[in-house]
Amino acid sequence: MKNTITQFSMLIFLLVATSGFAQKDFYVGLKAGGNLSGFTTNDFLSTDVFGLQVGAIGVKNFNRNFAAQVEVVFNQKGGIFEIPFSDSNPEIKLNYISVPILGKTYLSNNITFELGPEIGFLVSKSTTSVGGFAGLDQIKSLDLGASAGFSFQFYSGLVIQTRYTYGLSKLVDGSDYRNSYINLSVGHFFKK
Fold first, then answer.
1. Is residue 21 included in any domain, yes or no?
2. What is this structure's pTM?
3. What's the domain count of the chain?
4. Which Pfam families did the record assign (predicted)?
5. Secondary structure of residue 170 in the 3-state scheme
6. What is the CATH number of the domain that holds 92?
7. What sign for the dihedral angle of Cα 126, 128, 130, 136?
8. How far is it, in rounded angstroms, from Cα 54 to Cα 33?
9. Contact predicate 124/137, CB 8 Å
10. How much of the chain is in helix, strand and coil states, percent to nearest 5?
11. What residue ranges of the chain have pLDDT lower than 70?
């Protein structure tokens, strides 16, 4: 985990450091925010939990109407399973390095609609359940999702984003558990 955080920090530093060499139609920035995440499943009810999101953003404008955005973010996901007839409701915490790859359509000069896939690489997992959670060791290390959202960018470089991501891949083979989360974040683009 410590090695992953070090590598992630170095990647963010390189993205920010190289932004000075960027063309005017390409820019990078940093973002931080919160996730409200849970599991979609037909087996049990799931209560959402709060997690953090922090990372780097890169945007390439193709024209006045369309751009591509790639992010590399540390993403905390998870949820609380509400198991019927049980006193144990395990809270599962999953930490990912996520890479959303989004197409952006400009609805105005400041507002964009964003849509695209998200790839998540599991870096750690834990549970608060006293006896543990039997399926914790079976959680897959790769999580695929579909993201859609909006962003509002100020001329100063400040950006506010909101997004919903629905898990396309199952967390565990043989079950229908999928990650699902809503995100609200604030960022800043470093423009030339």
1. no
2. 0.80
3. 1
4. OMP_b-brl_2 (PF13568)
5. coil
6. 2.40.160.20
7. negative
8. 6
9. no
10. 10, 60, 30
11. 1-24, 42-45, 82-88, 129-136, 192
